[in-house]
Write a structure and sequence with these properties.
By secondary structure, this protein is α/β, with parallel strands linked by helices. The protein is built from 14 helices and 15 strands. It binds magnesium ion.
């Protein structure tokens, strides 16, 4: 079906397809038959359905695709004497059309093999593969998708409500500060204080972040802890000069304010699961251009922020699914964070680390802020009063949602305002 005809790439592709078809037909056609019928035009709906219903095999092999509806249309038409669907693993639909013959389009011999397998398949097996897929396609139809989509949208808090809670909580914090109350401030870094960067190393504190940190450091009765998935070494290099508590690797290591030494918090934790899971992550690294595995002392992380966003997200979901099975009997937690999938010991969490600190201190107010799934454990903290802040999209237990790190910094700046004058010289970049 002609589409986007003014895009040069599409024109080139069409020319390539036409010339190749010409070559194949020139070589194999006889007076009575030619192997390829190429239709470049719109086929009306009843005729299209008839062609789908008649086809023995449908081959849908995109190199990348969000969903792919052609595959689903073909399935919808396979009522009696069904055909076989050959589907690229890079089509979004491959995730739910589990009974198709799944192929990698970058591997032509395997695609050829799948075509042979499809043509030779018995009617029994064809029906066995097609029936459950067709059931699924007919059940989760366009109406179903639209309905669930609208339901999700209506579940989101209204903008006005969000604005109100922003000012309400900001005032609550300002009030505690101005009457000299003690505040425990537990802040995630990447995606919360600082915008996510393509290269993790580029996320070092910039001027806007440093200015805020100076103000926080100057604020009396303000206990600040930076709590991150990063290694202790990173946090030391970036925040070592500030009088803050530092919590690295999601709570596995902790450095109290004013101390130079890190304390390991993971004594007695088993890491026997690491080898096997590392192998699986390496497979995903190989299959997903731009992604890489990070082996931290207390966790394994698969990063995909440099991969194609849609494809990376797709592979991350697959990985998370495979990990749930592989690690079912291991004492680990699998977290699908912002552009990462991470495996950490179940005993270690940001929430547990914060809990330990909060129990030994007396705060008039505790604030926890974070942007991804690893921060949710902090939002379960039991303390009164407690302000929990989620930065960005996604499900959360937090009571306040702010749209971006910039908005979060505005939130803190506004509450600190003139009450905390900076007494520190800005530290070098
Ligand atoms: Mg974060």
């Amino acid at each position: 079906v002609p589409s986007r005809e003014n895009v040069p790439e599409y024109q080139q592709l069409r020319e390539e397809v036409e010339s190749r078809i010409g070559r194949i037909n020139g070589k194999y056609a006889t007076l009575h038959n030619s192997p390829i019928h190429f239709i470049h035009g719109t086929v009306d709906f009843p005729e299209l359905c008839a062609l789908y219903a008649q086809a023995d095999v449908a081959i849908v092999t995109p190199l990348i695709d969000g969903m792919n509806l052609v595959a689903k249309e073909y399935i919808a038409c396979q009522k009696d004497d069904p055909g076989v669907l050959i589907l690229s693993e890079f089509a979004g639909a491959a995730e739910e059309l589990f009974n198709a013959l799944i192929v990698n389009p970058y591997d032509p011999p395997s695609v050829a093999q799948a075509i042979e397998q499809a043509l030779a398949m018995s009617p029994g097996e064809r029906a066995e593969r097609m029936t459950p897929m067709r059931k699924r396609v007919m059940k989760y139809d366009a109406q179903w998708w639209a309905k669930t989509f609208i339901e999700d949208l209506s579940a989101i808090n209204l903008q006005a409500e969000a604005k109100q809670s922003f000012h309400e909580k900001q005032e609550q914090l300002a009030e505690v500060i101005s009457r000299g109350g003690r505040v425990g401030l537990f802040l995630d870094y990447d995606g919360t204080l600082r915008e996510i960067q393509r290269e993790p190393d580029q996320a070092r504190p910039n001027a806007a972040v440093r200015e805020l940190l100076e103000k926080l450091a100057a604020c009396p009765e303000m206990d600040v802890a930076i709590i991150s998935g990063r290694k202790a070494k990173d946090l030391d290099a970036w925040f070592g000069e500030y009088p803050f508590g530092l919590i690295a690797e999601h709570g596995a290591a902790m450095r109290l304010p004013g101390e130079k030494k890190w304390r390991q918090m993971d004594q007695g934790v088993s890491y026997a699961w690491k080898d096997e899971i590392h192998k699986l992550l390496q497979q995903f690294e190989e299959q997903t251009p731009g992604s890489f595995v990070e082996d931290k002392p207390t966790s394994l992380v698969w990063h995909y922020r440099k991969s194609d966003p849609e494809f990376g997200e797709h592979k991350a979901k697959l990985l998370a699914g495979e990990l749930v099975v592989l690690a079912a009997n291991e004492p680990v937690v699998i977290r699908h964070g912002d552009k990462i999938v991470e495996i950490v010991p179940a005993q270690i969490s940001k929430g547990a680390a914060v809990q330990r600190i909060v129990e030994s201190e007396h705060y008039d107010l505790v604030i926890c802020a974070g942007d991804d799934q690893t921060d949710e454990s902090m939002f379960r903290l039991e303390h009164d009063p407690l302000i929990t802040i989620k930065v960005g999209d996604g499900d959360t237990l937090a009571k306040v949602r702010l749209s971006s790190p910039a908005e979060f910094r505005r939130f803190l700046e506004g509450a600190l305002a003139s009450r905390c004058e900076s007494r520190h010289e800005p530290s070098p970049a």
